[in-house]
Amino acid sequence: MAKVVKIALAGEGGQGVQSIAEILAEAANEEGKNALYIPNFGVEQRGGVSIAYVQISDGAIGAPKFQRADILIPLSPRAVKRTKMHAGRETVYIYDNSLVQEAEVNDNIVGLQYNDVTPPCPAAGEPNPGSAPATSVTAPNKDLPQDMIAGDPKTCSFTAPGPGVNPADIPAEVKKVIAIPANDIAKEELHPRVFNIIILGAVIAATEVLPLDSIKKALETKLGDKFKANPALRDMNYKALERGYQTIKGAM
Amino acid sequence: MAEVSLQGEQRVFMTGNEVVAWAALAAKVDIMYGYPITPQNEIMHYWTRLAPKYGKRFLQTEDEISAGFTMLGGVMTGRKAFTATAGPGNVLMQESAVMAEMMRLPAVFVIQQRGGPSTATVIYAQQETTLTAFGGNGEGHRIVYSTSTHQELFDYTIKAFNAAWTYRFPTFVLGDGYQAKMREPLTIYDPGEKGLELVPTEPMVGENKPGKQFKYLRNTYNTEDELYEVVMDNQRDWDAMAPKVVEWSEKGCEDADIVLVTHGVVSRAALGAYDLLRAQGKKVGVFRPITIRPFPDKQLLAAVQKAKKLLVAESAYGQLLKLVQGALYGAPVEIVPVLRPGIGITTEELVEEYNKL
After folding, report:
1. Domain assignment present for B287
2. B44/B183 same-domain check
3. How many domains is chain B built from?
4. Do B53 and B126 fall within a single domain?
5. B3 lies in some domain
6. For residue A157, what pLDDT is reported?
7. Is the Cβ pair A29, B185 closer than 8 Å?
8. Residue B1, class by beta-carbon neighbours within 10 Å (0-12 exposed, 13-18 middle, 19+ buried)?
9. B351 CB near a chain A CB, below 8 Å?
10. With 0-12 CB in 10 A as exposed, 13-18 as middle and 19+ as buried, what is B84?
11. Are B256 and B159 in a shared domain?
12. CATH of the domain at B318
């Protein structure tokens, strides 16, 4: 029976966990593996924490959701609390220990039922903050259905200095705990928009089920047009991917 | 996203709602009638995206009652038509579903179950099993396919149109919010290229050609005896059809002490548990009705001849259980229910329940 790798990602609405999960699952599918991705959606998410479940295997995949994750990645202090039930003895636990945290947003969009509304795209902003549209952090992305989100500027991700993850909230009995300051790296070295791509690199390094190149291909499929228009975006995304990958590789 | 086409076989990775829209296209559906409700909205969204490209049509109605009845209108004129709904929308559509039973109209309903009762959750449940199989003021003269993978969602949506137009009973594809929203790979194809024949449609009203028998479609009767004859005729047709459309799947039941009985997406957890437990040398089997209506009574009874216990697991409080109990009435096997209304059941939970026995 083929092993099934179970990955759960959780974050604030708009942090991009669903995009990471989707890219990951699509890359696995392109590699000829079986992959299953399901977002949790529904009114229960009003708290703003969004969870994505991904399973990858060479064989059949059972139920769409699972109890214990092989890789659990909560990306905000609230997500750490919300995902405790998915941590088990075999879980590799990766969390973001940045000084800068994703702001807590009671996301009306992800929070209700529009899980098909795309979270902020990593290429939506410009690599050079000077040339970034002034509205990129205060207004919804232009590709979102504007009428559905009128008056609700909460669909974009933004960060603020926060209390950070309380070490007491980290489950004690897991296989391994790895901290990655992804928000800090994104903000200081790259661009806040590629935060989720750093995480994607980290997931690849931790799971070892897919080569990094498969993710690059998947990014190319998803963002190819934007990359063509601005090759610097491709470099930045690749750099973020490598950075996340190397950080975890060093820690494993 | 790569361009998807129905030419040749193509492996795709998509959500279940998208799968249904593609399957309807593959089945050469003419028109969808619909009213939005989560978690089936994207069936409409994808259909409306595909429809103009393929010369297909779509009508959004004012509610589910009218979506159901406009579909019946379409069907009467010979259009291959379907609708999709969930939860409270499924409740409203039962009125048109029983009219289809009475008039023998080949209407196709795709149901993506959400939590109940009432508005409940937009997420997931198996609480529309009884409703979908026996809803409305009638005898459940219908066909209900309960799918568990995206491949099945594609295959059985195509099959539903064929079954409906062959037997002239309303036909349901019973999915759920998980199947609607999850993504997994499947192979889509043109049924014709695979040698799968699509049952042709024909108008039931408005045709006065020579040789064409005028059909008076009725849903109102004046006397008890008149109604009795009609219902019994339909019952006889339904009984004759049942063995031809009944479907189930089973694994390892020959030597199993314990058989897991599930339907729909929960069957994935059962298969996962089966693999894990068999790897440990446990004598476990799985049985799954694919048609909830007609229910594979005889097949279930035969499959559990050697079993000591049945573990019946569902995301509802006893809807599958009742069907199983009905099928096994008098059989000496003990039934242990795992009933979780409105919540998913994982592989790990089924293994845990098994270990408690």
Report:
1. yes
2. yes
3. 2
4. yes
5. no
6. 43
7. yes
8. exposed
9. no
10. buried
11. no
12. 3.40.50.920
What's the total number of domains in chain A? 1
Of B121, B266, B276, the CB nearest to A43: B121
Helices (H), chain B: 16-26, 41-54, 64-76, 87-103, 129-134, 150-167, 177-181, 224-245, 266-279, 297-303, 319-327, 347-356
Q: pLDDT-based confidence at A104, cuts 50/70/90? A: low
- Which chain B residues have a beta carbon less than 8 Å from that of A60? 271-272, 275
Mean pLDDT of each 10-residue bin along chain B, 357 residues long: 70 96 96 96 95 94 98 96 98 98 98 96 95 97 98 98 98 98 96 94 80 80 97 98 98 97 98 96 98 98 96 98 97 97 96 96
- Asked whether residue B231 is domain-assigned, the answer is no
Which of B13, B42, B150 best tests the A interface by mutation, with the highest count of A CBs <10 A? B13
Q: Does ipTM come in above 0.95?
A: no
Report pTM. Answer: 0.89
Mark whether B25 and B114 lie in a shared domain. Answer: yes
Are both B58 and B134 inside the same structural domain?
yes
Average pLDDT over residues A10-34: 88
Residues of A with Cβ-Cβ distance to B348 under 8 angstroms: 66-68
Give the pLDDT confidence score for residue B207 in this predicted structure: 66
Indicate if B187 and B268 belong to the same structural domain: no
Domain membership flag for residue B40:
yes
Residues B121 and B36 in one domain: yes
Best of B114, B184, B251, B315 to disrupt the A interface (most A CBs within 10 Å) is B184
Domain that holds residue A140: 4-251
Range of the domain at B270: 249-356
Counting Cβ atoms within 10 Å, is residue B166 exposed (0-12), middle (13-18) or buried (19+)?
Answer: middle
- Cα A173 from Cα A234, distance rounded (Å): 39
Task: From A24, A3, A81, select the one nearest A205 (Cα to Cα).
Answer: A24
Question: What digits encode the pLDDT tens for the residues B8-46?
Answer: 899 999 999 999 999 999 999 999 999 999 999 999 999
Compute the residue count for chain B: 357
Q: Is the pLDDT of residue A243 over 60?
A: yes
Question: Where does the pLDDT of residue A119 fall: very low under 50, low under 70, confident under 90, or very high at 90 and above?
Answer: very low
Interface contact A63-B272, CB threshold 8 A: yes
Beta carbons within 10 angstroms of residue A93's beta carbon: 23
**Is residue B37 domain-shared with residue B154, that is, in the same domain?**
yes
Question: A 130-149 residues with CB below 8 A of B?
Answer: none
**pLDDT at residue A49, as a whole number:** 79
CATH number of the CATH domain containing A35 = 3.40.920.10
